[in-house]
Design goal:
Layout (H helix, E strand, L loop, with lengths): L9 H15 L7 H14 L8 E3 L3 H10 L4 E3 L2 H6 L9 E2 L7 H8 L3 H5 L4 H4 L3 E4 L3 H12 L7 E4 L7 H11 L8 E4 L6 H15 L5
Parallel strand pairs: 2-3, 2-4, 4-5, 5-6
Antiparallel strand pairs: 1-6
Helix pairs in contact: 1-2, 2-10, 3-10, 8-9
Length: 215
């Protein structure tokens, strides 16, 4: 007999987690679809208070679901976001160019971060894609630069870089410009909080909804 008694069934653990999340969190400010994303982020972070920073631009959920149904590719700023995505729910491919052979040299020559240098590969894949940025504020700023320069529009931007330098500023810039100036819906966590796991969790919540899985 095991010494410790604890719940082992992964499906039951998840089900009970979401029951508790609904009990502990005021989700009344979100519609039913937005609540699915909010609960997934709470489940990932263990923090019901995260919902105070969570923002959806109009039509962002519908845009993400439609893109997934159409087999959209996903573009990630770092491998940790890519590895956190449940690919069994996706029809499209997940791309991260951070470790492409030319990126390190490009970054050295230009003085940019590797995340910025990797985005030289993005324009060919941007149209109709879903972007998931969970680590590098410079990547999010560079994406906004690309859109400002006329790059193809993604279907949805999930902007959740984390940190103390540029993170809050990059997400505020996303929120202020993407829906209005660039006609691109976005989902973001304003402020310093964010991270690869949260960006991946947002995409996973959308992918589950696209496959009829809800809590």
């Amino acid at each position: 007999m095991p010494r410790f008694d604890y719940l082992r069934d992964p499906d039951e653990i998840e089900r009970q987690s979401f029951v508790q999340i609904r009990q502990l969190t005021d989700l009344s400010g979100f519609d039913a679809d937005q609540q699915q994303v909010a609960m997934r982020l709470i489940h990932t972070s263990g923090d019901p208070g995260i919902v105070h920073d969570l923002h959806f631009s109009p039509g962002s959920i519908d845009a993400g679901l439609a893109a997934l149904e159409n087999g959209a590719d996903v573009l990630c700023d770092i491998e940790m976001v890519s590895h956190g995505i449940s690919k069994r729910y996706l029809k499209g491919k997940v791309h991260c160019f951070l470790n492409s052979p030319s990126v390190a040299e490009h970054a050295r020559q230009t003085g940019e971060t590797r995340s910025m240098a990797a985005m030289a590969e993005w324009p060919a894949h941007l149209a109709g894609s879903i972007v998931a940025i969970g680590n590098a504020p410079t990547a999010l700023f560079r994406l906004l630069d690309l859109l400002d320069e006329g790059a193809p529009r993604p279907a949805l931007i999930i902007g959740m870089p984390v940190g103390f330098i540029n993170a809050a500023e990059s997400k505020q810039a996303l929120w202020d410009t993407a829906p209005s100036e660039f006609r691109t819906p976005c989902i973001t966590l304003l402020g310093r909080r964010g991270g690869s796991s949260l960006a991946a969790a947002t995409l996973n919540a959308l992918a589950r909804m696209a496959n009829g899985i809800r809590f």
